[in-house]
Specification:
The protein is mostly helical. It has one domain. Helix content is about 70%, strand content about 0%. The chain contains three helices and no strands. α1 crosses α2 and α1 packs parallel to α3. About 5% of the residues are buried. It comes from Paraglomus brasilianum. This is 10130_t:CDS:1.
């Protein structure tokens, strides 16, 4: 599974009022069983990249 696409799925499928770092990590834990602590930088970078586009979209 691709972390970036799974983060996109999280943001698209979750009500924006429920968005949180912990909820997102729980979601990734369930859908990406292969994740390890070595993936944390990729998760963090992809999470940060998703937030600006999501916040502009939810304000429309």
């Amino acid at each position: 599974m691709d972390i970036s696409s799974e983060l996109t799925s999280y943001f698209n499928d979750t009500n924006y009022e429920k968005w949180s770092c912990m909820d997102c990590l729980e979601y990734l834990k369930e859908v990406c069983a292969h994740l390890t602590s070595n993936d944390r930088d990729e998760i963090f970078q992809n999470y940060k990249a998703q937030l600006p586009s999501m916040s502009s979209r939810s304000s429309m």
